[in-house]
Amino acid sequence: MKILRFLIVLGLNLALIYVLNTRMGAVPPLGKFLDPFSGFWQNAETANSYQSTQLALGGLKSKANVVYDSLLIPHIFAQNDEDIYFLQGYVTAQHRLWQMEFQTYAAAGRISEIIGERGLDFDREIRRRGMIFGAKRALEAMQKDEQSQKMVESYTKGVNAYIKTLYYQTYPVEYKLLDYSPEEWTVLKTALLLKHMANTLASGSADIEFTNALKLFGENYFDILYPDMHPEQDPIVNAPQSWNFTTASANNNNSDVAFIENSPSPAIQTTEEGVGSNNWAVSSAKSASGNAILCDDPHLEMNLPSIWYVMQLSSPTVNVFGATLPGATGVVVGFNDSISWGVTNAQRDVVDWYKVEFKNASQAEYLLDGNWQKTTKEIEEIKVRGRANFYDTIYYTHWGPITYDRSFQPVGKTEYAGLAMRWVAHEPSEEALAFHKLNRGTNYNDFVSAISYFSCPAQNFVFASYKGDVAIWIQGRYPIKTKNQGKFVLDGTKSENAWQGFIPQTQNVHAYNPPRGFVSSANQHPVDSTYPYPVFADSYEYYRNRRINRVLDSLKNITPKDLMGLQNDNYNLQAAESLPYFLSLLDQNKFGKVEKDIYQSLASWNLYNDQTAIAASYYEIWWSILKKNLWDEMEQRGMNLRKPENFTSIKILKKRPDFAYIDIINTPQKETVTDLLNITFKMAADSVKKWQDKNPDSNLQWANVKASSAVHLARLKPFSVYNIQNGGNRGIVNATSSRHSPSWRMIAEMDKKGVKAWGVYPGGQSGNPGSPYYTNLLDYWTRGKYYSLWYMRSATEQPNKVLFQQTLQPK
Amino acid sequence: MKFLLKILSISFLAFGLQFILPWWAIAIPAFVIALFGGGAFTNFLAGFFGNGLAWFIYAAYLDYQTQSILSKKVVLLFYDSIKTSEPLHLLILTASVAGLVGAMSALSGTYLNKIFVQKQDNYYRK
What we know:
The complex is a heterodimer. Chain A is an alpha+beta fold. Chain A has 22 helices and 29 strands. In chain A, helix 6 packs across helix 9, helix 11 packs antiparallel against helix 12 (444-451) and helix 17 (614-630) packs across helix 20. The longest helix of chain A has 27 residues, at 81-107. By secondary structure, chain B is mainly alpha-helical. Helix content of chain B is 76%, strand content 0%. The A-B interface holds A 2-3, 5-6, 9-10, 12-13, 16-17, 20-21, 30-32, 34-46, 168, 173, 177, 716-719, 769-772 and B 18-19, 22-24, 27, 55, 58-59, 62-63, 65-71, 73-77, 82, 85, 90, 93-94, 97-98, 100-101, 104-105, 107-108, 111-112, 114-115, 118.
């Protein structure tokens, strides 16, 4: 009896320990996790946690030094390039390991391994887009080049040297919370990370939406709704008739549109609204000091840990400072003593979809020029946490992988059809080498030759040098297309619909020291209409670029301070071009109290979306309701359609008051523009009242209504920051919308006596939510302030600015 | 007095063992100490407070050192929604988890002990 009693209690005891050692749903293993000796408590840090150390590292070739400044920016001093990349990997992993690994899980379609079944659709789509396929081809190219191979291998060794030192107590807190362990870093992961950027910036295409629109609305309406370029646009390079080179033009002009019966709705948002960027460089002639000044602020999703990790890399061949991508080699946006560079997304359409006809449901053969061609099959094993593995078959055609087919969002009920993806990111490429060379560049020619290695995601590279030169290149690998090719889904049964090669790199759009004294880009059209190649993209920006160019045109004797002001400029050009017209059509006799207040506020608004501006909230609320009702036809069709650009929408409201879609289809009468504006104004007033009722403790100032947030990558609320008090919006130079924002504001003045630079980003250098450096830069960023960046000339410079140092030697 | 001594020895041993063994090692001291005798209820409490104390003190020390920088975030994960965070709740939860393991282990130890020392008990009662 007593034995039984003992055994029962012992059993319960062991069961308790087992339960506390096991993850239950979203609850981490409580015993392991809460243990103060090894659990999450160990991840809490103070500034004092960072103490100088001496380390011996296996894999390091020579002695090296890592000096951390007061912002926790590491300055790496090594004696050769292999050690530079080894230490870039080692140091980045020390501060950002969980993030860099998580991002490569996402890029490889492995999220289900961590979060379980709810990641499965995402993972399938990532794999069906050929992300791993593309990364493997990029890796092959890297391994063919001795320099690239050394770089990625050294980096990989460095990351692994750090991972090897880890045990449960020292794991980043996310591993403890989600209960898994870091795995070994590989060169493929670095390749995947570059594809991850390509997927974020250059995988968007509206082919499917546009094909639906063409079928529904017809060609005439299509061109009004989605014109290639409005004449008011200010392209990045506006040099009509200067493009005098022999073009490598397309041999034939075929691009047959293939209509699809049921269009797939992607699990992944393909074009993220709010992703974009600004950059510009003013030449010595325009600046007060006579030095060229370069500015860049890439707009990306506002996440934590921050997308960028800032560092300085110094060896006998290089001394470069700037923003790096955790997981990738080299500095992506930055400067050295001679040159500086920055990027914005080039937008160009580098993805096309081909409708493929299969012989039968086995998808073993597809039709091409009247013959049956074989597909190749790849079976993808997707590990799903807490469930059996999922196996997905991906069929590859000569076009590319079949992303959508009957097993993944069927595209046709009766026909055996699939959509194949043709994407530049599937081509072999050498982006890592581009940054390696760029980091070491000393003049314009070095810059041009370095970026020629860069294919995807296509970027507008802006350049400035200590000699006062400025330049811009719309750099990427661009397929040669016929006029409308790639706007719509293409007929994949004819080989003549294929891309006709690629535009020779030297013929890419560029400008060097243009007469106006500056270069700039903000995701608008790259070039005037006389450029001999079509430059279609499903979305080009219309407002930020014109504002930037106007301000830069009007300024003389420009100082870095002026440009800090411009990066944080909240002027709402869209409102300036639409609000007076909107207000003029309102019938003030019908106003109630609230409507009257809103009208007054809007009529006296200075048109700046400042954080405290209440009128900005009124305008933005009204505009979103107005746009929804203007294009209500598109929401009711039950298929994927893209709403026209804001610029196009406003132009239609102003210039085509009789346009058919202005009518609100849910009402019996036919609305005019005046009706639409009055009705939506009333709706906006109601929405304002509702917002106020819901948020009684908050006022309607723009920052509260917009409620920008920086969200942790695993969507963990306590590790995120909400309601960031900043102005702006997408379409405004300070492009801070609710979830996207300028992710790294950098200004570099190319002083002949030594570069001076300023920078800030919405986050912090540490990826650890338990570190004081996790979001410490956010406050300056929010207030439009900058940190002066410390470009060190030697490892022993000004030790009083040093937080701590790591003195390293080979093991 | 004896009770207090029990708590402190469990606490002390649990603390020491944790530097060389994983978290579940805190089951051992409570179990072993209970083997030396004592009533089920007393041992249960000694196990609970002994282990709870070890974890509470160390966690509280770390939390004080780091000004609750992480605990005030992590505690929110255990609430239904974001509200004013109270790191003390997390300290109590931490101590309770260790305490529960200690209490159950002490109980197991006590019952194992009772299997062998039955006669002596009977002798005393007569």
